[in-house]
Amino acid sequence: MSVNYRINSEDNIAEITASGKITLLEIVKEVGRIMASGEYKAGMDGIIDARLCDVEATAHQVQNLVSLIAKDKSLTRNARRAIVA
Fold first, then answer.
1. Which residues contact 43 (CB under 8 A, 6 or more apart)?
2. pLDDT tens column, 9-47
3. pTM of the shown model
4. SS3 assignment, position 77
5. Nearest CA to 42 among 15, 83, 16, 73?
6. Residue by residue, what is the 3-state secondary structure of the chain?
7. Which structural domain range is residue 44 located in?
8. The CATH number of the domain where 50 resides is what?
9. Could you tell me which of 29, 38, 43 has the C-alpha nearest to residue 81?
C-alpha cells in the first residue's frame, strides 16, 4: 500500500493518491491523518484517486464513508469531495 498526498493551497484542494492493496479503513485513517496535518484547511476541496488500488470494500462500507464525510463539521457547504476508483 502506498498513499501520497499533496495540499495545493493556491487551488484550495487536497489531492490523495493511493496504490496497491488497501482497505477502506486504511483510506479513512490516511484521510484523517491528512486532515489533522497543519497543511489542511477546513473547507478545502478533496479528491481521492484510488484507480491504482485493489480496494477491499463493501457497498455498505462505502456508504458509511460517504455518511462520515457528509457529517464532517470541518467541511463547508461549498467544499467538493470525490473518490475515483
1. 12, 74, 75, 76, 78, 79
2. 999 999 999 899 988 888 888 888 888 888 888 888 889
3. 0.75
4. coil
5. 73
6. CEEEEEEECCCCEEEEEEEEEEEHHHHHHHHHHHHHCCCCCCCCEEEEEEEEEEEECCHHHHHHHHHHHHHCCCCCCCCCEEEEC
7. 2-84
8. 3.30.750.24
9. 43
